[in-house]
Specification:
The chain is an alpha+beta fold. Helices cover 48% and strands 17% of the residues. The protein is built from 5 helices and 3 strands, in the order βααββααα. Strands 1-2-3 form a 3-stranded mixed sheet. Strand 2 and strand 3 form a beta hairpin. The longest helix has 16 residues. The radius of gyration is 24 Å and the shape is elongated. The termini are far apart. The mean pLDDT is 90.
């Protein structure tokens, strides 16, 4: 990832916009990262991952009732023909 000072980024915005199509551009101020410039495709992927992470939860965050619901569940008998595959060799 390329990192540039904010003044340089401002001076050559069009050039960095093109570079961002291939890699994120870190923008710094006084030597510290203040922003990242990414392509629209990469931003959409970040948003998709952020949305997906909100739907997932760590096991440690589940209540005892939720864990019991998950472990006591069973598949429909419609899928019984798959049980030999789960048993292994």
């Amino acid at each position: 990832m390329r990192t540039v000072p904010a003044t340089e980024f401002t001076r050559d915005f069009a050039g960095y916009r093109e570079l961002a199509r291939g890699e994120p551009i870190g923008v710094t101020s006084h030597g510290r990262a203040t922003a990242y410039f990414v392509s629209a495709i990469e931003f959409e992927e970040i948003q998709r991952l952020r949305t997906a992470s909100r739907r997932s939860r760590a096991v440690a965050d589940l209540s005892r009732e939720e864990i019991e619901e998950m472990t006591s569940g069973s598949m429909s008998s419609y899928h019984d023909h798959l049980n030999p595959l789960l048993a292994g060799p």
